[in-house]
Amino acid sequence: MGNLTMSRRTFVKTAAITGAAAAAFGASTHTALAEETYSSVSGNDTVAVKTCCRGCGKMECGVKVIVQNGRAIRVEGDEGAFQSMGNCCTKSQSSIQAAYHPDRLHYPMKRTNPKGEEPGWQRISWDEAMQSIVDNFMDIKAKHGGEAIACQVGTSRIWCMHSESILKNMLETPNNVEAWQICKGPRHFATTMVSQFAMSWMETITRPKVYVQWGGASELSNYDDSCRTTVDVASRADVHISVDPRMANMGKEADYWQHLRPGTDGALALAWTNVIIEKKLYDELYVKKWTNAPFLVCEDMEPSGFPTVRTDGSYWDVKTALLKESDIKEGGSPYKFLVYDNNWEKLKAEGVEHEYGAFTWFNADQEGVIDETGGFWEGENYDSEKARQGREAAQDNLLPGQTQGWLPDPMPFDPAIDPALEGEFEITLKDGKTVKVKPVWEHYKARAAEHKPEVAAEITGIPASEIEAAATAYGTRIDPSTGYGNGGIQYMLAVEHFCSAIQNCSAFDNLVGITGNMDTPGGNRGPTIVPIDGDLQGFSAWAPGATTPPEEVNRKQIGIDKFPLLGWWQYWCDSHSLWDAVITGDPYPVRALWNESGNFMSQTNTTRAWEALCSLDFYVDLNLWHTPQNDTADIILPVAHWIELNSPRASQGSAGAMGATVKCVQPPAEAKYDPEIVMDLARRMNWKWTDEPGNEWPDINWQLDDSIKLLTDDELTYTTWHVENGKPTFERHGVPMAEVTPKYKTWDEYVKAFQEHGWWQAKDIEPRNWGTYRRYQTGAMRARDRVWGRLDYTAGKGIGDWKPGWFTPTMKQEIWSTVMESHHPDHPEWRLPTYTEPPHGPKDGDRIKEYPLTATTGRRIPVYFHSEHRQLPWCRELWPVPRVEINPKTAAEYGIEQGDWVWIETEWGKIREVADLYYGVKEDVINLEHTWWYPEVKDAGHGWQFSQVNQLIDHYAQDPHSGTSNLRAYQVKIYKATPENSPFNNPVPCDSTGTPIIHTSDDPRLKEWLPTYEGRE
Fold this sequence. Notes:
Blueprint: H1 8-17, E1 30-31, E2 46-52, E3 62-68, E4 71-77, H2 90-93, H3 95-99, E5 109-110, E6 122-123, H4 126-144, E7 149-153, H5 166-171, E8 176-178, H6 185-194, E9 210-214, H7 228-236, E10 239-243, E11 256-258, H8 265-278, H9 284-290, E12 296-297, E13 307-309, E14 315-317, H10 325-328, E15 336-340, H11 344-349, E16 359-363, E17 382-383, H12 384-387, E18 390-392, E19 406-408, E20 425-428, E21 434-439, H13 440-449, H14 453-460, H15 464-475, E22 489-491, H16 501-514, H17 551-554, H18 565-569, H19 575-584, E23 592-596, H20 606-615, E24 618-623, E25 635-638, E26 647-650, E27 657-661, H21 674-684, H22 700-707, E28 718-724, E29 727-733, H23 747-757, E30 760-761, H24 762-765, H25 775-778, H26 818-823, H27 847-850, E31 853-857, H28 873-878, E32 883-886, H29 888-893, E33 901-906, E34 909-917, E35 925-928, H30 944-947, E36 970-976
Helix pairs in contact: 6-16, 8-13, 8-14, 8-15, 8-16, 14-15, 19-20
């Protein structure tokens, strides 16, 4: 039988259609599974191994790797993978070129030349490499403390996430640089503050009636549903709305294109909110019952509150102006939040009398500090099973066999209170002072009115009529009989990059909530919940029983003084402050770095970050390649590619898929799997992974078996609540997690089942949890018992209580943020979503005179994933150089023609990219490509200095809450690169010898990167 390969022609055709169809199986190809999933598939037969693609770090696309004679020869789509519909994009298909690339790292290496120069890599043994790492870390820790060692992490491949988790425990450091700070993290940060961890994820896969695609081209790439799936969703939606400064691929097909000025997303979101409120398109029951909109704001009293838990188990104090029983009664509960009941007189006549007359309360005592009524209203009647009563969802256009899910009916108030959203009321405080109070909704309504369409039009550049029309289309229910909204908002990366990331995402979260699209079909549902490791946490990211570092370590986190909310969030240190600390020693020395998949080019000013990397005493990098960053490393360790390893995998977003990354071939030479490397480090540091005698440092087989042990046919533990006249009782059901019988005893069994069954639907795996909507009503939002290290989606100190509500201090979706209020008492404007101009945009004083164009960046490219794949010949042939999109009218003004190299400059740096004339950007906007480097350049840094966009940014322009870099919406100038203004008299970037970078598709150097199958032993 001949070799089955993909031709260049097929690859080019795939790239052209941007979605990538899965090739049909050839007649002689059959689906099978090797007897041992850990060994490479060998023999003359051809095997199609079902697995999860990681050609990008984004959506969990199901693919098949075709293995022939022990060699992976092709990747194609898995047509049975419901979440990706057989999609197999150019990045996925070119993974074969990555796995067999001649420049793959095969052995541990150490540098022999000074930093800043070509490293002079020398091969060493694994033992020498690991012992050197331990010796250097221990020496630095002894001199400066564990906080002097930083960790770095990048993409969401899940098996290389140790730097954000267990390594911080092992090294006793609070300092980790994460791409998460500028990518997904701000969304998760904001939703944890407003509703629940990562509620930004939208269940696009259930085909919302109105599809809102905000700030990204998910038809090319995205962290949740993307590519073929979103193309299908947009095509089938009754209404498609695209919000993007640039005309994206699917934008031209949209019913509404909200072509806003870069960086003004917050103003547009508030304008939509204003339209929704003024036209009364909001879900009144949800707003009154499940948000803190009816809670009363008293501006004439000292804020007070109660302690509540952080992720490390320590506590912080809520200090809020929201009216509580403790404010009106001596000895009253600080957890009972008061609302005005429009129905109080009618209820009183019926024999239901509130303790405080016209005012009733909701109790947010979620840990039972005072009593067990936390989570319920005064005198409430509630039953968990009644809360689940409803029907099967009935979304149109689902794929054959796709599970609808269970949709509980909305539960009205019982008794029939009617919390006021509007009005002003008088009440007497415990000190005898009579004050006036207003519901949060009044303040929210006023904030939205500040950005009504006429105002937002002046800010965003979108006509007011178009803003109103799009918001009305989103908020007006196409089928009111469903009882929920038209769908959530798929808000993506762009909204995080203007120094207003947290406020933007808060505005979106609340907009989704008030329109009745929170945890509903096609709405925002958060991360898929499954009983295997490999969803939120990342495989091998936590040792059993481990948590985030203790409070005494976290208090030392760099950047926490500048950004107080980082002390609440506790997941990343501020990357800008960390690089500064490396250089200056302030607030203390940071002298070492461990990096798994991180990239210094993703955030902060790149020049400043490079200076810091060159200043470290010791740096170890785990990687597939020689990269710009690890040119500053002291030791590099070779790691396995995704077709060379096993890992559990579930959708990080709301797609609800559960499967696996399956080892198809062996890694080359001495390359190792990240979890094995980290386990070796733990062993050498005598840091015990488990307390099991003789198994303190378990092998990868144990870890894989452990990762699927909670997948069971048993019903996992859950709690039902019965509340009668405000008096709750509860009952625990199901099998405790420690006692469940695993469905599959070993990883081998799990993989075998996966090969036979294909991707599982999480709705079928956990029908009471992920398979049920409106989990804030049923209690499943607060369901999961703590068996992993973090407290993101658990209650109290890690025990799932199954009480209705959200995991916020008020147990409600917080339109008025008590987290923000408590940490920033001097900024009352931040308590509600607000809009702030980008710091270096067109409104930044007189800068526009010298820098007249607004730069945006970060667009999705079919063949690349951020900085990845620049050395893959298929990809580089199709897209050899970075392009800057510029409107043809603007280009003519500057004397720039298609294909010209141009300089783009700010006061912080300048770069070169190639002009790409495109009417899809406005005349005062240019669109730059990001994280470019040139693997063919052998100088230290591989030419990142030529085109890397973040050289242009202000290192200290940051979101005041998350520290996120200002990566877009800043002013630049542009001019043509000429022989006279270019090094080596060549507009094309050149290395130190004057040799140009690869800039054409016919460059013969591309052939040097073709796959090589020898030398892997």
